[in-house]
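Narrative of activities, Objective 1.

The group set out to show that a structural description can be obtained from nothing but a protein's sequence at a throughput compatible with the screening campaign. Below is one input-output pair from the validation batch, recorded exactly as produced.
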Amino acid sequence: MKFDNKYLPILVGGIFALGIFIGSLSGSPSSKSFSSKKNTKEKLNKLIDFIDNEYVDDVNTDSIVSLTVDNILAKLDPHSVYIPPQQQAEIAETMKGDFVGIGINFYMFKDSVAVIAPVKNGPSARAGILAGDRILFADKTKLFGRKLPNDSLFATLKGEVGSQIQLTVYRKSEHKKMKITIKRDVIPLKSVDVAMRLNATTGYIKINRFAETTYAEFIKALASLKKQGVKSIVIDVRDNGGGYMEEAIAIADEFLKDKALIVFTKSAKEATEKMYATEKGSFETGNVFVLINENSASASEILAGAIQDNDRGTIVGRRSFGKGLVQREMDFNDGSAVRLTIARYYTPTGRSIQKPYVKGNEEYFKESESRFLHGELYKKDSIKVVDSLKFKTKKGKIVYGGGGIVPDVFVPLEAEHGTENVSYLLQSGIVGHFVFEQLDKNRNAFAKLTFEEFQVKINSTDLYFGAFQKYLAQNGLEIDLRNYKSLVKRYVNAEFARQLYGDIFYYKMVLKEDAMIKTVLNSKQ
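Output recorded for this entry:
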């Protein structure tokens, strides 16, 4: 199997870690050890100056500094990292939860900017931009025929709130060009993908990361589901790499009784800090299920650990990643940042779920691959637990530390009818691009169908399964999908639903045959 990197899913939470500042420190300590450390830092600074001013060839000293910082941080732990300026700006925007722009989901299709869909109620949608439109010019800037990178396109389309941009658009379905003026506005970046009912009394909330707005999004979703008569909640943090722990703590608070311990941290120099639930919990009774997998990390594990250790709900899925470290971000003047691990966190029973990293960063991140090879993703008995790291909840349930959250109810990857790589492929950008290109051939064929009519039509044919197999081959992905036909059809058909009807319809189709969802619903019968 070969993968083109541009189609692999981006797991924002997977790059979150913190770093260390190299330079002089404030104050005037007189200790000998500190003096030695200070001399070492001055030596590094002088070395950079020597290279910058005296070295025979031209050298980008910024790149040398980056390498130095990276090498130093690599000696600490896998989650202490340096983040270059451009990457840091992108991460900051993602974690803020919004940006200013025109509100479209797009990609470069052949030689033009193709609109996959305008953001619902966003500036482009209000101005009349439709799915399938090609953006030829942004003001006087030519966008077609140049194969511009996404960062350049984003920079062109973003701007200040209230500023205007005139787009020259080609509408294929009508074979005409038009000029559309759009007023830029704040565009939310959702961290709660969807909130919906699975049945009359069971609600489902999908969290893709823990950003600044996650708790606010979550509490709004929870309130809406309660009004619809929901008595049980399923919180899905599969493939959620984490983010701000405060957001996870606030969400856990909604389910726990007053003064229940949620999490506590220990740092090298500061006292232990404990975070407790308050009186404000809005869902302190009723069933709670948290769905996790091997890519659920950090803040996702804090939420799952709090629910599990307080005997408040059921954790369903596979063992989580195992990140029990807390980072703090420190910014440099050039827009770059370092994220430094400043503490370890512990679940309410006192366990650290941080997996070992003594063998180095490469082996640390490969550990998830070894789970696949050792059969852990298929059999619960293959999960490696350490008896010396055994803990008990107040009700006597056994839980383990030392490497992730072990679920209460195990759901193997085998039950999801596909290998790990196939599952990742089907959740990558290539499926969205394929579906867009299929719709682009004859969008009118679906235009007047209700969702129910669409489901009957799309589920009754293998046409798009065969076309997707050919599409992969054309893009250099050598993989035989015949053994995963039902899984492939589910995700491809669901992506059709997303682009035609919206996100909630994607989840309605994907979750219908989801093994973990089935496990949850069957456990309540």
